TrEMBL record:
<dbReference type="Pfam" id="PF01520">
    <property type="entry name" value="Amidase_3"/>
</dbReference>
<dbReference type="Pfam" id="PF07833">
    <property type="entry name" value="Cu_amine_oxidN1"/>
</dbReference>
<feature type="compositionally biased region" description="Pro residues">
    <location>
        <begin position="262"/>
        <end position="273"/>
    </location>
</feature>
<dbReference type="InterPro" id="IPR002508">
    <property type="entry name" value="MurNAc-LAA_cat"/>
</dbReference>
<dbReference type="InterPro" id="IPR012854">
    <property type="entry name" value="Cu_amine_oxidase-like_N"/>
</dbReference>
<dbReference type="InterPro" id="IPR021731">
    <property type="entry name" value="AMIN_dom"/>
</dbReference>
<dbReference type="GO" id="GO:0030288">
    <property type="term" value="C:outer membrane-bounded periplasmic space"/>
</dbReference>
<dbReference type="GO" id="GO:0009253">
    <property type="term" value="P:peptidoglycan catabolic process"/>
</dbReference>
<keyword id="KW-0732">Signal</keyword>
<dbReference type="Pfam" id="PF11741">
    <property type="entry name" value="AMIN"/>
</dbReference>
<protein>
    <submittedName>
        <fullName>N-acetylmuramoyl-L-alanine amidase LytC</fullName>
        <ecNumber>3.5.1.28</ecNumber>
    </submittedName>
</protein>
<feature type="region of interest" description="Disordered">
    <location>
        <begin position="257"/>
        <end position="292"/>
    </location>
</feature>
<feature type="signal peptide">
    <location>
        <begin position="1"/>
        <end position="17"/>
    </location>
</feature>
<keyword id="KW-0378">Hydrolase</keyword>
<dbReference type="InterPro" id="IPR050695">
    <property type="entry name" value="N-acetylmuramoyl_amidase_3"/>
</dbReference>
<dbReference type="GO" id="GO:0008745">
    <property type="term" value="F:N-acetylmuramoyl-L-alanine amidase activity"/>
</dbReference>
<dbReference type="InterPro" id="IPR036582">
    <property type="entry name" value="Mao_N_sf"/>
</dbReference>
């Protein structure tokens, strides 16, 4: 199909957005209906992104943090940014006559400018108030000869087999390619994903966020919203940005917290008075233990470190370019483990040594039970296909800042990738571990170049060497 995705046409004269329900939209001779009417902005007619997306069968990505829309199909790639007249077409910058906008939580794009950049024919019929888009080649298609029945290809209905929460957000697992119309709603704050040509191979249900996931996500509801439409509603405990990334047949939704709703004031605990001689003793209150003196790691005979290979077993983690995160993290962790085991300074504990699935709570509990001196979790990132880089996280309320900065410095030398810096985060395994703890994101599995590097054994060994060097430096200086 031709490339007509977020297009618009210049019409009446209105400075502010105004609904234009009387305008008709036609694509390759087919009238397009929409529950959301076009909008008029600065003499231009704008239509909702999803209308043209569905009509033309294009792939659409949305990064709410950067307010960027990415359209791919027919060997073309278009990048548009909300409220910007600059657009990228296959890497070249062009200027639109009208910027894309967001109106009532929906994205609208200028028709004529984008349509013409895609080489499409754009016509306006003032009598019928109709916008006509036609592919440049659509009129040249041969018609079937007499006696031959033209059969339209039938799009496969994808089966949604799993809706799986991850540390970054959610993964929608399907047996065929699925696209989602994703938008936000307020009162309460929600992210809504509508997947057409999809069947829910699960019972309608919900997932309530528990202790295992310390995120802004409160609950997730999913249902067969229409005969061939699955809806997923993610209720948030505040405001957040999100990124939807196709990964094979699956969709990965990464959610970044912007602001958390204030928690209601807690009721102070009741004052407990010691029992009198006439009252039964309901228990003994242990005195608070004396503070344990902090022993510098450099002076300890043994430094115990818990090494965590992210994901595992039923949890593949991020997927992309034929790879699974759980396999890459285990490979790198095993190589680092060998270095640590061969160093008499260290005592090593691993959260998993094979394709098993300890929960996040299991991992944190293990580190605390072992009274480890250090904790490290190895992960692989995911995002748009163009995203690259290495980043490291620590919990702001913990003691991992120096540890993170030192390890990150060494890791960058090994990956040779973009420095995405050191950040704080509330990932469960670094928030609920009691020792200096960090989580490293080596690279992006969704980027073809970085994925190819990360599956290479020599590259994995280089990463392990750098992590080992970072751990050694931290221990020797703290």
């Amino acid at each position: 199909m031709g490339m007509c995705l977020f297009l618009l046409l210049g019409l009446a004269s209105v400075v502010q957005a105004a609904s234009a329900p009387d305008i008709q939209l036609w694509i390759n001779g087919k009238k397009i209906s929409s529950a959301v009417p076009p909008q008029m902005v600065n003499d231009r007619t704008l239509v909702p992104v999803y209308v043209v997306k569905d009509a033309m069968g294009m792939n659409v990505g949305w990064d709410s943090k950067s307010q960027r829309v990415t359209i791919t199909g027919n060997s073309k790639k278009i990048e548009l940014v909300i409220n910007s007249k600059k657009a990228k077409i296959d890497g070249s910058t062009r200027t639109l006559d009208t910027a894309p906008v967001i109106i009532s939580d929906r994205t609208f794009l200028p028709f004529r400018s984008v349509g013409e950049l895609l080489g499409m024919n754009v016509d306006w019929d003032s009598k019928t108030k109709s916008v006509h888009l036609t592919n440049a080649t659509s009129e040249k298609v041969d018609k079937p000869t007499s006696g031959v029945t033209a059969v339209k290809p039938i799009a496969k209905v994808a089966s949604i087999t799993k809706i799986q929460q991850t540390e970054q957000g959610f993964m929608i697992v399907a047996d065929a390619k699925v696209d989602a119309k994703t938008f936000t709603m307020s009162g309460p704050n929600r992210i809504v994903m509508d997947m057409d040509k999809a069947k829910l191979n699960l019972k309608n249900g919900s997932v309530t966020n528990g202790q295992q996931f310390d995120t802004i996500i409160k609950t997730v509801r999913y249902s067969q919203f229409a005969p061939e439409q699955v809806r997923v509603v993610i209720e948030l405990d505040g405001k957040a940005s999100y990124t939807v990334t196709p990964s094979g047949n699956n969709l990965q939704l990464a959610i970044t917290e912007t602001s958390r709703n204030p928690k209601p004031p807690t009721t102070p605990p009741p004052v407990v008075t010691p029992p009198t001689k006439d009252e039964p003793d309901q228990g003994t209150v242990e005195p608070a233990p004396a503070p344990v003196p902090i022993v510098p790691l450099a002076t300890k005979d043994k430094v115990k470190i818990v090494l965590d290979a992210g994901h595992g077993g039923k949890d593949s983690g991020a997927v992309g370019n034929g790879l699974q995160e759980k396999d890459l993290t285990l490979g790198m962790a095993q190589k680092l483990a060998e270095l640590l085991r061969n160093d008499s300074k260290f005592e090593l504990v691993m959260t998993r040594e094979g394709d098993t699935y300890p929960t996040l709570q299991d991992r944190a509990n293990l580190a605390n039970k072992e009274q480890a001196d250090l904790f490290m979790s190895i992960h692989i990132n995911s995002g748009p296909a163009t995203a690259t880089g290495t980043e490291t996280y620590y919990y702001a309320g913990g003691s991992g800042k120096d540890y993170a900065n030192i390890v990150h410095k060494h890791l960058l030398k090994a990956t040779g990738s973009l420095d995405r810096k050191v950040h704080t985060a509330n990932f469960y395994v670094i928030k609920y571990t009691k020792m200096p703890s960090i989580l490293v994101e080596i690279g992006f599995i969704t980027n073809a170049s970085e994925a190819a590097k990360m599956k290479d054994e020599d590259f994995q060994q280089g990463v392990a060497d750098s992590l080992y060097a970072g751990i050694k430096e931290y221990v020797n200086t703290h």
